[in-house]
């Protein structure tokens, strides 16, 4: 991966317009598959869980997080265990059961990412702005790649020896993590 500015940066959208665009896309679908890069780490897992919760609360659609590779580091394994993050192996799923596919913390074509060739990617949310990306804003229904997106998408879920993460905005959604995820103001109402 060779991080460089993209030739044509995505037009700057407000948090509200990104939220609306993502909510409307998800409301038009029945079931979401969320993928990350191989051997997911805390930012990919946190972002994936944040998107799953957004899909559930803002659009009312179920989702699955599927991974390739393994959860390798002890602190990543502790994050999965302590937060009860549910995931399945990509190769065990019937991919035809999903009409919406999202990549979080990665993009199609990145060397550390496997996307089955017949899958159409609908959502890309990443904080790696790279010249070798194979998709851009005109290639998928929802494309949000910004250097700071991961911080805005999902707060750092695991800090050493800390269980509480300060509240931050998540694509216009307030998230608080205390051994789990508590979401508020997803559809304009306090939950």
Could you outline the blueprint of secondary structure elements for this entry?
Layout: H1 15-27, E1 32-35, H2 42-59, E2 63-67, H3 74-83, E3 88-89, E4 100-104, E5 123-126, E6 142-145, H4 149-153, E7 164-170, E8 173-178, E9 181-184
Parallel strand pairs: 1-2, 1-4, 2-3, 4-5, 5-6
Antiparallel strand pairs: 7-8, 8-9
Helix pairs in contact: 1-2
Give a description of the structure.
By secondary structure, the protein is of the alpha/beta class. The protein has a single domain, classed as inorganic pyrophosphatase (n-terminal core), CATH 3.90.1640. About 25% of the residues lie in helices and about 20% in strands. It has helices at about 15-25, 40-60, 75-85, 150-155; strands at about 30-35, 65, 90, 100-105, 125, 140-145, 165-170, 175-180, 180-185. It has a 6-stranded parallel beta sheet. A 3-stranded antiparallel beta sheet has the order 7-8-9. α1 (about 15-25) packs across α2 (about 40-60). It is globular and about 40 Å long. Mean pLDDT is about 75; it is low at about 1-10 and about 150-190.
């Amino acid at each position: 991966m060779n991080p460089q500015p993209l030739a044509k940066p995505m037009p700057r959208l407000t948090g509200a317009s990104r939220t609306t665009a993502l909510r409307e896309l998800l409301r038009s679908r029945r079931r979401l598959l969320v993928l990350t890069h191989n051997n997911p780490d805390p930012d990919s897992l946190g972002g994936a869980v944040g998107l799953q919760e957004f899909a559930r609360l803002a659009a009312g659609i179920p989702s699955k997080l599927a991974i390739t590779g393994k959860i390798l580091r002890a602190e990543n394994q502790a994050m999965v265990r302590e937060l009860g993050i549910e995931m399945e192996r990509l190769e065990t799923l019937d991919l035809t059961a999903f009409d919406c596919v999202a990549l979080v913390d990665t993009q199609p074509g990145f060397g550390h990412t496997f996307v089955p060739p017949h899958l159409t990617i609908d959502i890309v949310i990443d904080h790696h702005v790279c010249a070798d990306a194979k998709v851009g804003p005109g290639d998928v229904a929802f494309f949000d790649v910004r250097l700071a997106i991961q911080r805005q998408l999902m707060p750092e879920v695991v800090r050493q020896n800390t269980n509480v993460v300060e509240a931050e905005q998540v694509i216009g959604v307030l998230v608080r993590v205390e051994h789990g995820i508590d979401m508020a103001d997803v559809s304009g109402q306090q939950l």
